[in-house]
Amino acid sequence: MSEGSDFQKVLDYIDANAERTVADLQELCRQPSISTTNVGIREMAALLEARVARSGLGTTLHETGGNPILTATLAGGGDKTLLFYNHYDVQPAEPLSEWDTPPFDAEVVDGAVIARGATDNKGNIMSRLAAFEAFLAVRGELPCSVKYIIEGEEEVGSPSLEPFVKENADLLAADGCVWEDNTTRVDIPVLSLGNKGLCYMELTCRTANVDFHSSNAQIYENAAWRMTWALSTMKDRDENVLVEGFYDDVLPVTEIEDELIRRIKPYNGAERVEKFELRGFLLDMKDEDLPRRHLANPTFNIAGFDGGYTGEGVKTIVSARARAKIDCRLVPNQDPYKIRDCVRAHLDRHGFEDIGVELLFTSYPAKSDPEADIVKACNAASQRLYGEDAIINPFGNGSTPTYIVLKHLGVPLSSTGVGRITSRTHSANENLKVADLIDGAKWMAAICEEFSQM
Amino acid sequence: MSEGSDFQKVLDYIDANAERTVADLQELCRQPSISTTNVGIREMAALLEARVARSGLGTTLHETGGNPILTATLAGGGDKTLLFYNHYDVQPAEPLSEWDTPPFDAEVVDGAVIARGATDNKGNIMSRLAAFEAFLAVRGELPCSVKYIIEGEEEVGSPSLEPFVKENADLLAADGCVWEDNTTRVDIPVLSLGNKGLCYMELTCRTANVDFHSSNAQIYENAAWRMTWALSTMKDRDENVLVEGFYDDVLPVTEIEDELIRRIKPYNGAERVEKFELRGFLLDMKDEDLPRRHLANPTFNIAGFDGGYTGEGVKTIVSARARAKIDCRLVPNQDPYKIRDCVRAHLDRHGFEDIGVELLFTSYPAKSDPEADIVKACNAASQRLYGEDAIINPFGNGSTPTYIVLKHLGVPLSSTGVGRITSRTHSANENLKVADLIDGAKWMAAICEEFSQM
Question: Model ipTM?
Answer without folding.
Answer: 0.78
